[in-house]
């Protein structure tokens, strides 16, 4: 068997385990004792072999130790000798260093002298050469060799820079400037011709001449001056009538008229502008291809400058044409009386601001194509080009709030939000319903108008004028709500709740209406009672419908304001102004500059950020606004929210006045009824001498309160329909519950108001005899039963009045003096005073 000796050197060696493993390797036929004997013999032989090897190697090692010791001693002696030698060398070096320092310093001074002598030699050569060049430069110019002349002038300038401010060469400096101007004047016509005819070789040669004499700026000026002419001619074609568009209608709906001449037609500026932009792009693309060949090192500067100069040259004319086009559109709208084929939002497309935005969108498409064309150019150069393209619109953007305000007011004025017109009896309910219908119909129209305004703001200003826009929306909403408040005021006479008109109608009710009847069963009646009952309920339904309109306005305004906050949030994420303005400097593009405007990927610049970079104050205000918009409590239209709340409160007040008016009329003269002090009549049968039934005034109030839930059902159904359509599914069930709660709330509110008015009339009763007290008790009990039927709790004051007027006179003193009574003490004392019961 083979024995692995490494196993015996392992730290985890276990003799038993090794022996068991060895036994498992034996053949099955071998006896165990024989196998173990052989194994023991093999291990013993291996141990003897190892011992012999160890002895042999140990003997050899002992023999080598003396030799190694002698080698170590010899190496130590050599090291000591080497150290002594190195020390001696170091001492000699230190001694030599002190003596050579003076020599090195002397050599350095000699080298400086040599350099100065060489510089003086070169200067003398340059001075001699400058004098020679100055004398021969006229011959070079006379030869007409412009490259040689440029090289001569360049050498003269180099020599002049070496010579410095030497008085003898002051005239040479002036001569050099004159010669450079002279050479530039000679190059100009040839360069203009080469640029006009697109001669690559000639242009490159002339360009090298100008660069040689340091007149690169002249190259830029001549290039832009020559190449801008074709682009200017394209712009001037609008006045010359060469637009070449067919007769028809423009984008603004303006009919195109034929010019003088059979083949020429005049087109609107809005129709012609896209053609101009297309032609500019074609020429710009050709110019870029040619410049790439002619100016391989300069085309990234020359082409953007060409477009900037072109747009700057036509900027004032561009603004004048925009103004003329918008004025023409405004005049046409006025001539048509503000009515066209379309209305509402559609009509805004042919408005002044609509045309302005249409032109701006055309310019935006042109700017995108320019960015794509200049995609490989430096970002600051592209940024300057875009600014030049949008310059004609800058004045309008700064006045955007005013323009949008005029647009919105015009669109709101086109809505039918007329106030109510007083009508005769029988027609008031119809007029009221129509007025409320006009209000409700105007709300979705208003929201559409406002949403269109948001789109206009983002399209035209990119959101940079969001602050002025929100201020304008707030003002326009206040104007709209003021109109609604006027409509609300005009509805009060129709509803019969205008105090002044109501009093006047009572004064004028004389013989025609028969006056006020003194029958106790018709207490509180007036001329209003003569209105048919059907019209009364129509007025009530119209007023209740007004609640739905107010709720719709509140809900839609809230949703619109939430959408405004969402727009501001998206705007903040897109612009990222916080990373731009902290690094802003005064160069027009901040230190992060156009890079901060690169929000749409490589080379895609955001014009809004570029514009705000030139208006840092506007940018910081916008950034503050966008940060505030992150707060859910922030109101984008703060005044509107307050005014809508005031309008809803006014609507609730009107509805309450309408619902309580009949109760108010019935209770108007209850305190002065003669029944409270009527004399008692003698009867022979000792029967009660008071009415066993409540009087007509209180029964009519009870009947009115009982029928009120039926009147509130349409309101509940309308509210449920509005909420269900908005939420759907489970939301519809929730809206039904909320509508029922609203109807119940209004029923309780009217019942509580009726109870309060009744208590006020009871307190106004001056005196009560026994008969009057019993009658009043019957009336109060009836009203308490009505309240109980409506699931309402009777107020403690009314319960006190009922208990006090129903009790005998002699018991009142006991009730007043009872300690810990649950009665309302002031009311109890008042009843005692009415019934002339002394309690002191």
Which radius of gyration do the C-alpha atoms yield? 53 Å
Count the DSSP helices: 29
The quaternary state of the protein chains shown equals: single chain
Helix and strand element order: HHHHHHHHHHHHHHHHHHHHHHHHHHHHH
Structural class: mainly alpha
Percentage of residues assigned to helices: over 70%
Largest sheet: none
Poorly predicted ranges: 242-264, 339-349, 500-530, 583-593, 599-603
Inertia-based shape: flat
What's the rounded overall pLDDT mean? 77
Beta-strand content bin: under 5%
| C-alpha end-to-end distance | 135 Å
- Tell me the total number of β-strands: 0
Question: In words, what does this structure look like?
Answer:
With 840 residues, this protein is mostly helical. Among the domains are: 215-396, no CATH class; 399-498 and 529-644; 667-704 and 751-834, no CATH class. It is built from 29 helices and no strands. Helix 5 runs antiparallel to helix 6, helix 26 (770-789) runs antiparallel to helix 27 and helix 28 (809-817) packs antiparallel against helix 29. Mean pLDDT is 77; it is low at 242-264, 339-349, 500-530, 583-593 and 599-603.
Structural features:
single chain, 840 residues, mainly alpha, 29 helices, 0% strand, flat
Question: What is the topology?
Answer:
Blueprint: H1 6-9, H2 15-24, H3 32-143, H4 146-163, H5 170-197, H6 200-212, H7 216-240, H8 269-294, H9 299-313, H10 315-335, H11 352-373, H12 379-390, H13 394-398, H14 400-413, H15 428-461, H16 466-495, H17 499-507, H18 510-513, H19 533-575, H20 593-596, H21 607-614, H22 616-628, H23 638-666, H24 696-727, H25 730-763, H26 770-789, H27 796-806, H28 809-817, H29 825-834
Helix pairs in contact: 3-4, 4-5, 4-6, 5-6, 5-7, 7-8, 7-9, 8-9, 8-11, 9-12, 10-11, 11-12, 14-15, 14-16, 15-16, 15-19, 16-23, 19-22, 19-23, 19-24, 21-22, 23-25, 24-25, 24-26, 26-27, 27-29, 28-29
